[in-house]
Specification:
The complex is a heterodimer of chains A (about 100) and B (about 200).
Chain A: H1 3-27, H2 39-60, H3 68-94
Helix pairs in contact in A: 1-2, 2-3
Chain B: H1 10-15, H2 29-55, H3 57-64, H4 69-94, H5 98-128, H6 137-168, H7 175-201
């Protein structure tokens, strides 16, 4: 395989795996047996997950080379999901 | 339909674009319609889950504490490896290295299977501890989201089978179909990334 592409795919996979391990630390904050609501942990978990999703779409699914319409549609879905999840979380919790 | 046998321009592999510089849709456009539709459906599931969670935060957190976060991380890493290998499968098929592409497709299947086994073992463990679909609202969402994702993964194996079938014979090789199958597999991966964050990490 083209070495440049091979390196890029490897780098992307390593970055995604490292972020996943960081989520392990994030999810382990505090005692597992007595979890408490935490808006920061929740917001971080959702934002980090959406960043990972966008990286998968752009790099593994090759959308970075796709027509602009597909790039915009996939970005729109990521933003819509983020706004929806965070919006309903904060509205539901603090309203 | 683009055939691999016709030796696609190498520029597309090297730059991700066709030789004439025109951007391309990876796989068949119909698959992207399905991917966007499925993604919107899952967004709806996730939003309902998050909202219901805010209505009974203590119940959801108490139940969430019974999940094994490390198993969730392991499952995520396994699917990320499978996504990486299917991306390599697409690239190597594009370059005409069909033996390597086939090996990567098999590797994807192997890690997909590992995920299935791990998920079933996790379900068995939860059920043995007394946490079933009807235990409470958190576990209803947990089993619903993981089961529907599981179903999509099983369908993903059909797509991987199609990719292997395409790559195996020079007479029927289609780069577009291989890309289409990979697109579906990646979708399963990124949906799990969100499920993992919502079920295992969020508070």
């Amino acid at each position: 395989m083209n070495r440049r592409f091979e390196k890029r795919l490897l780098f992307v996979w390593l970055a995604l795996s490292a972020i996943t391990l960081a989520q392990l630390a994030l999810g382990s904050l505090g005692e597992r047996g007595s979890l408490t609501p935490n808006a920061w942990v929740t917001s971080s978990a959702i934002v980090i997950a959406l960043i990972k999703v966008r990286v998968i779409i752009r790099e593994f699914m090759e959308v970075r080379h796709a027509p602009v319409l597909l790039c915009r549609l996939t970005d729109l879905w990521v933003v819509l999901t983020g706004v929806s999840l965070l919006g309903f979380y904060f509205v539901g919790r603090f309203a | 339909m683009t055939t691999l046998a016709s030796a696609e321009p190498y520029e597309r592999a090297a730059t991700g674009r066709k030789a004439d510089g025109v951007r391309f849709v990876p796989g068949q456009p119909d698959m992207w319609v399905l991917v966007l539709f499925e993604s919107l459906v899952f967004t709806t599931y996730f939003t309902v889950y998050v909202f219901r969670r805010t209505q009974s935060p203590d119940l959801f957190l108490q139940s969430q504490a019974h999940l094994n976060l490390r198993v969730g991380v392991f499952n995520t890493l396994v699917l990320l490896v499978s996504s990486w290998s299917v991306a390599r499968c697409v690239q190597t098929a594009r370059e005409g290295s069909f033996r390597t592409a086939l090996n990567n497709a098999y590797l994807t299947m192997l890690f997909g299977f590992l995920f299935l086994v791990s998920k079933v073992l996790e379900w068995v463990t939860e059920i043995e501890q007394g946490f079933s679909f009807t235990t409470d609202e958190f576990f209803s969402f947990y089993y619903f989201l993981t089961a529907i994702h599981f179903l999509h993964l099983l369908i993903g194996f059909v797509f991987l089978g199609v990719a292997v079938y395409q790559i195996k014979s020079p007479a029927r090789r289609s780069q577009e179909l291989v890309e289409t199958c990979a697109t579906y597999w990646h979708t399963i991966d990124f949906l799990w990334v969100l499920i993992f964050a919502l079920l295992y990490v969020m508070r």
